[in-house]
Write a structure and sequence with these properties.
CATH superfamily: Glycoside hydrolase/deacetylase
CATH topology: TIM Barrel
CATH class: Alpha Beta
Number of domains: 1
């Protein structure tokens, strides 16, 4: 079984992916950063300093009307590891409450910013009433079954080819190659964390 998910809630998902998926009869899940619905991605740091718009509330409502699911990607997209217990609970609970109130939905799933998980985060996500948490694909789960609560994902990047997609769906060394690639890309994303912490 394959689930299609989009993180962050960029408007290009609505403009580019949604029409194609709608035509194919495919629905997806989008994980929203509640502080950035209808705003630009000032939470992110990139080399060109280019800012991209996030989905507007009307965009989100149209996705929901077409069978898409909305999950939480936290309030602010700050890295959760190292947060105090109170800050962590606020990121998890407030984002869930805001999305449920604004869009009149039940938010079941949480996606951890930068894909980073630890036991404390998993515990707090469960305590906040979510049914599952998405992170990245740790190597240890190639042979071991993950806990039911954890949903493993492999990212699809703009530079991925059809062969790369095929490797992501395999179960041998090809899958290991894609997991390695994801870990390298995710390590580079730490640049955003470092730059934000320096400000």
């Amino acid at each position: 079984m394959i689930a299609l998910t989009f993180d962050d809630g960029y408007q290009d998902v609505f403009l580019n992916a949604f029409p194609v998926l709608k035509e194919l009869g495919i629905r997806a899940t989008i994980f929203l950063i509640t502080n950035y619905v209808g705003k630009q991605n000032t939470w992110d740091v990139n080399l060109g300093g280019i800012k991209f718009p996030h989905l507007t509330p009307d965009n989100v409502k149209e996705l929901l009307q077409n069978g898409w699911e909305v999950g939480s990607h936290s309030v602010s997209h700050r890295i959760l590891t190292g947060m105090s217990a109170l800050e962590l609970r606020d990121e998890l609970r407030i984002s869930k409450q805001l999305l449920e109130q604004q869009f009149k939905i039940d938010v079941k799933y949480f996606c951890s910013p930068f894909g980073k998980l630890n036991r404390k985060i998993i515990y707090e996500v469960q305590s906040a009433g979510y049914q599952g948490i998405c992170g990245f694909f740790p190597f240890k789960y190639i042979k071991l079954e993950p806990p039911d609560f954890i949903i493993l994902r492999l990212a699809v990047y703009s530079f991925d080819t059809l062969r790369a997609l095929a490797r992501k769906l395999s179960t041998n060394w090809r899958l290991r190659l894609e997991i390695t690639k994801q870990n390298v890309v995710n390590f580079c994303a730490n640049g955003t964390v470092i730059v934000k912490n320096l400000k």
